[in-house]
């Protein structure tokens, strides 16, 4: 298997993000038009994707004070906004879940461009629509935290209540799990050097499944071009960061809400990406991380009930050298020259 594509640490410049792919399948069955190749000399100028878009303008039906709402717009605008929101959420999950203003603007522009091309509409993004879409940044993280915190409690055995024994147990458990990223291992005894299965903790797969692969309509299943065929390192880093936040809620021994904010957890998120990159580099000859990420995606996709991604079959063809070798063999083998002349069956 080829090595895992490197995922750059989220940057403030926004230049390290992936560009939009040429053709992006969608849940609606529409597909973004591929970028046209350069026309041959003397031929008609190729049309750009923008030239294939129908001019359109967002129509706001309800103008009111307060936060913008999708239902304030006409149905066509609601549809393109809904598509842009989905792309934006996917980009957050796979590119940068804790973006600064520059990075968030980059992801927003990319998501809106994808939505415009999918719907073939040249609609400008208004400031209100931009706010409506970017409000999903904290919403997506909050949704993940809510789903993961319940799994953390059940998986590790934290116990509610203010019983002194439970409080001591919870506090010690939280410390042990955070020591050396114990929560990321398949087996996590108290001694760090005895742990096995880095990035193979069952909780990681469960978190991915519940957030992005719950069913065939989930974002991970409907957007394999972003989540697969190899899970992105930022996605795994986001899950690990959410798990750590869930453990932090038990740090005092008594469960307390801990906001999953950029101010508190962006540095943790970046540290996870760096740790994965170091692990990837050290284990490159065996592509261990690539295998782990591929397995996480494949199991998630299977859990969703979506069809497995089919690799492109190699073309059935013969190389020039293979054809030349077959001709030489025929010429040099006397039996093949007369074989079949008398209607004899070859053995």
TrEMBL record:
Pfam families: DUF6532. InterPro entries: DUF6532. Residues 1-13, 25-43 have a biased composition (Low complexity). Residues 1-74 are annotated as: Disordered. Signal peptide: none annotated. Residues 84-279 form the DUF6532 domain. Residues 61-74 have a biased composition (Basic and acidic residues). This is DUF6532 domain-containing protein. It comes from Mycena albidolilacea.
């Amino acid at each position: 298997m080829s090595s895992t594509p490197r995922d750059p640490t989220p940057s403030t410049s926004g230049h390290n993000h992936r560009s939009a792919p040429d053709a992006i399948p969608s849940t609606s069955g529409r597909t973004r038009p591929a970028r046209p190749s350069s026309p041959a000399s003397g031929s008609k100028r190729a049309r750009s994707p923008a030239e294939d878009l129908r001019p359109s303008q967002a129509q706001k039906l309800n103008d009111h004070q307060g936060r913008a709402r999708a239902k304030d717009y006409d149905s066509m605008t609601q549809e393109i906004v809904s598509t842009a929101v989905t792309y934006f959420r996917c980009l957050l999950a796979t590119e940068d879940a804790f973006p600064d203003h520059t990075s968030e603007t980059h992801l927003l522009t990319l998501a809106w461009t994808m939505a415009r091309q999918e719907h073939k509409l040249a609609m400008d993004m208004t400031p209100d629509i931009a706010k409506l879409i970017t409000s999903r940044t904290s919403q997506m993280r909050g949704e993940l935290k809510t789903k993961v915190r319940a799994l953390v409690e059940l998986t590790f055995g934290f116990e509610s209540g203010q019983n002194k024994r439970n409080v001591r147990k919870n506090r010690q458990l939280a410390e042990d799990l955070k020591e050396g990223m114990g929560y990321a291992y398949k087996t996590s005894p108290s001694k760090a050097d005895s742990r096995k299965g880095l990035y193979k903790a069952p909780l990681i797969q469960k978190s991915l499944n519940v957030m992005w692969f719950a069913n065939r309509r989930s974002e991970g299943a409907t957007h394999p071009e972003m989540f697969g065929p190899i899970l992105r390192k930022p996605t795994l880093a986001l899950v690990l960061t959410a798990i750590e936040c869930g453990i932090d809620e038990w740090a005092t021994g008594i469960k307390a809400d801990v906001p999953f904010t950029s101010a508190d957890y962006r540095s943790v998120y970046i540290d996870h990406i760096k740790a994965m990159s170091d692990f990837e580099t050290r284990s490159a000859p065996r592509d261990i991380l690539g295998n782990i990420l591929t397995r996480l995606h494949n199991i998630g996709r299977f859990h969703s009930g979506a069809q497995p991604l089919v690799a492109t079959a190699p073309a059935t063809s013969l190389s020039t050298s293979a054809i030349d070798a077959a001709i030489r063999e025929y010429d040099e083998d006397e039996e093949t020259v007369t074989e079949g002349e008398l209607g004899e069956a070859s053995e």
